[in-house]
Write a structure and sequence with these properties.
The complex is a heterodimer of chains A (115) and B (130). Chain A has 115 residues and is mostly helical. Chain A has helices spanning 13-40, 45-53, 55-83, 87-113. Chain A is elongated and about 55 Å long. The model of chain A has no long low-confidence stretch (mean pLDDT 92). The longest helix of chain B has 32 residues, at 23-54. Chain B is elongated and about 65 Å long.
């Protein structure tokens, strides 16, 4: 039995919830994109570009990426917490993942707003 | 019997070759593996996304990359990883809502995850990649 008082600090509840909310957002976006892809198949550069250049889709895609990178951070952090025991190594890996996610966000934004 | 001897006598099956996972456990470890694989392949996927949208020239280059049979195979694997993670994730959302947590339904829904994700990978893979 684990005795802990679940008050004060977050005890992971916020991340647990965020992991699920981001999952639902991504699932909805995935269905929308899958339908769009099946409708416009075969994809040409013009139709592909037009899809993401439209305002709502551009913003939705960016929201998807933000959710994806936050979801990845929580998931990968959980994996590291399970298998990587030395605190120093784990800290370094966590920092690398965070920096990667920040970088990927910039890359996604650049790709979408260059259109 | 003291706690110490109890602990010592507990059987441990940490040998990967000896572990026999029940179906929900199998789906669960695949959820983790597929997530890890998708994380590791993110740079490649973002590169494909960015080059497909950059310009007509980079789109042509992207087309050439995904025309490679080896790349197609990798993308099929990643499509499976995404769809497995997607289906197993939806199952977890229901389990979180206390739906289907008894042994029989949990086993059945774990089987359903595989029964949906694997054929869906083949169908979408053929449509989108070939």
């Amino acid at each position: 039995m684990v005795n802990r008082i679940v008050v004060g600090a977050h005890y992971g509840l916020r991340d647990w919830l965020a992991q699920r909310i981001t999952a639902v957002v991504m699932a909805l976006y995935t269905v929308v994109l899958a339908v769009a892809l099946l409708v416009m198949s075969p994809v040409t550069y013009d139709s592909w570009r037009a899809l993401f250049a439209s305002g709502p889709m551009r913003v939705a895609t960016f929201v998807f990426f933000i959710c994806l990178f936050y979801h990845v951070w929580i998931g990968v952090r959980d994996i590291f917490m399970d298998y990587i025991k030395p605190t120093g190594v784990r800290l370094v890996l966590h920092v690398i993942v965070i920096l990667l996610m920040v970088g990927y966000t910039g890359w996604a934004a650049q790709t979408l707003w260059r259109l | 019997m003291s706690d110490m001897t109890m602990k010592k006598r507990r059987p441990k099956y940490l040998n990967l070759a000896e572990i026999r996972l029940p179906l929900p456990g199998f789906v669960s470890i695949l959820h983790r593996v597929s997530g890890a694989v998708l994380f590791l392949m993110l740079p490649f996927l973002l590169y494909l996304f960015s080059s497909s949208l950059g310009s007509p020239e980079s789109f042509a280059a992207y087309k050439q990359v995904v025309a490679n049979p080896l790349v197609k195979l990798i993308l099929l694997g990643l499509l499976w990883a995404y769809l497995h993670h997607f289906c197993a994730g939806i199952r977890y959302l229901f389990l979180d809502l206390d739906k289907g947590v008894d042994l029989v339904s949990a086993r059945r829904s774990a089987g359903a995850v595989l029964a949906v994700s694997l054929p869906l990978t083949l169908v979408l893979g053929v449509i989108l990649l070939w």
